[in-house]
Amino acid sequence: MAAATADRTGQKPAAIAGRFDELRARRPWLDHLVRAGLRYTDRHGDDYAAAMTYFSVLALVPLLMIASAIAGYFLASRPGLRDQLRAAITAAVPIELSDTINLIIDQAVAQRNVVGAFGLLIALYAGIGWMSRLRAALSEQWAQPPDPPPMFKRLFSDLRALLGLGVALGCSFAITTLLSAFTGDVLMFLGLNDNESTQVLLRVVGIMIALTANFLIFLWMIARLPRKSVPLRSSVKAALLGAVGFQVLTESMSIYLRMLSGSPSGVVFGSMFGLLIFVYFVSRFALFVTAWAATARGSEPEQPAPVPAPAVIRLEVVAPSRVDRSLAAGLIGGAVVTAVFGAAHWRLGRLRRRSRPDGSTSGTGCASVASGVAG
Q1: Is the CA virtual torsion 238, 235, 289, 242 positive or negative?
Q2: The model's pTM
Q3: Where do the domains of the chain lie?
Q4: 51 Cβ partners below 8 Å, 6+ apart?
Q5: 183 contact partners, CB below 8 Å, separation of at least 6
Q6: 299-343: per-residue pLDDT in tens?
């Protein structure tokens, strides 16, 4: 019974592990996936993703302040538009609420300089913190030593990387929007915009444009944002995987938000909760894709051969387990002879001590010794 229990508890996991190792040896993609997962876990991927999510949400407040300042500048330069906005708000909501909203609009216009300046400062702090955590996380996935440059040099480098990422994202979104609009205008000009197959084609073209933009952003992020240079060749496949995965995450999140909007709690908290989940999963996915690139063949640095331990010489004496009979007989015989001669020497000494006070001769002593030995 105990043997059967040991077989069920010990043999089965060992057999499963052995089969899984054989499967990894036959399937290189599976082995790569496992190594990437281990790298992501060992290099604290979830912790870095949580830090990136925190700084991303923190950046929302200054972004809203900047948006409010931009709206204030826009309304201040167009008084007629501001009056139309006030009239529309007064006609659409109750009088008490309309007064509050109009007061907020007036304050946004009057304090646009202060709000914009504070928003830029806070956004700069949050953006540099987010970029610093992102670069540290990417460098950790590449197993780079944690030796960042001095503080001022690091801040300048992170600010430059943040501005570069912002420009890249802006260009990507602009190109995607312009190409999609251009494709729609062309189809409308040809009179094919009402056709269902044309709508499907337009959707496919939009997805391909988005995938291209995502690919370029992921490639730049994986290969250029780590603290030290990394091979570009292994980053290409990872960037392609990141572009496809990001598109899937975006589509899944849009479906999830539509599902949340059907409940009252989802209307209030759904957008914020969905934003947190989306940013966290995108951060985790970006770090996993980086771990995938870092564990590709040829990307991992060669590990130096381990130095052998110093040699230790130990003297070891092995006693025979069984004693030979001839050796035992020789030892016993030697012991007997030694005992006999020892007894004779002791007896001779006693006889000499007795014969000296009587004045006996040596011959008598010899005879006594002989008789003593005989006795």
Answers
A1: negative
A2: 0.65
A3: 148-267, 333-374
A4: 133, 137
A5: 202, 205, 206
A6: 655 555 566 667 667 666 555 555 566 666 777 777 777 877 777
